[in-house]
Predict the 3D structure of the following.
Amino acid sequence: LSDHARSWLEVARILDGGDVNGIICREELPTPALLLDLDAFEFNVQKMMSHVCEHNKTLRPHGKAHKSPEIAKYLITAGAVGACVAKLSEAEVFAEHGVGGLLVTTPVIGKYKIERALSLAKIQPDTILCVDNAQNVLDFSDAAVTRRLFLNLAIDLWIGRRTGVEPGAPSLALAQLIDSSPNVRFAGIQAYAGHASQVVGWEERRKTSRESMRQALDTKQLIEKNGMNVPLLTGGSTGTYDIDSQIEGMTELQPGSFIFMDVAYRRIGGKDGPVYQDFRNALSVLTTVISKPSRDIAVVDAGFKAFSTDQPVTPESKSAEGVVYRWAGDEHGILDLSQASQPLNVGSTVEFVIPHCDPTVNLYDRIFCLRGDTVEQVWSVAARGKCQ
Ligand SMILES: Cc1ncc(COP(=O)(O)O)c(C=O)c1O
């Protein structure tokens, strides 16, 4: 373990300098801190990678979960074909850091954003953009002709109750429009069934995903029957990866949360029981007890600004058994210690599994990556706040 005798200025210098390997330990980090257990993270990446390879699919993990170019590059080195991104601004950050194989999963609308999408495609020409309406295709095509560039467009299918063109004839018409428009290429289909990802119970989840993906497969066939090649059928999530990987016509999976996991995902249940544990909890938030008003109550320095609050679940203690967390405002959490397995005092640290990974990561500038108790790397959440 590292030497606690050093000053904060020295700790800050080491953390900012990036050369942290084995020098700084968990207890020295300023809390609340976002931690990544590298052993668990590597296990998760390996498991997903082996799974997709066995099932003859490609993997383009969703970068909206981590927003970190270092993680996107790690995944590509592990075998991913690129990274999905939710928004153009996320894509711009990834592209600037040399991440290729980008798929922007949300429609890009408006003149300025189309200009930006073209600049992005100039840096990373294999970028794929999703479209779900004819005017958007025409706008992309016109802008691409003007800039003398080419764009790859995938049609976004309405199977997930979010965005997309209706399956069947409307999708065929859109694919044909792309095919016949100058300077745009038809890349395939995105079919993301978001409503299936957290259906409780594996069998029920399978049913929901299968019903949605059936429409995607039928649409793919329809387009092929009309003489067009559909190179890509991408979709899927952490909750349905082992369901969608069984679908023959699907070419690619785009799960995101599996690298980290969270409380919400664990509750959906797995194939083998009521807790979904195909992937390990790799992400946590380290907190400090800053007040202890009574024997059974402690207050930690992490509230709404340290954890996501969009799910009906609370942070779960990872380091101290029996501790129950309750929201106590922007900066505070109250711990019920009545069932705690160990005493906690002012200054003690407590680590929590987070409620929902994507919005929690978006609250932090960096992720401290630990091997055991020492910080091995510090990764930047460079696309934090990039929601444009
Ligand atoms: C379009 C799209 N694909 C894939 C994912 C990944 O899902 P998950 O993080 O549940 O694996 C998301 C997440 O919201 C998404 O919006």
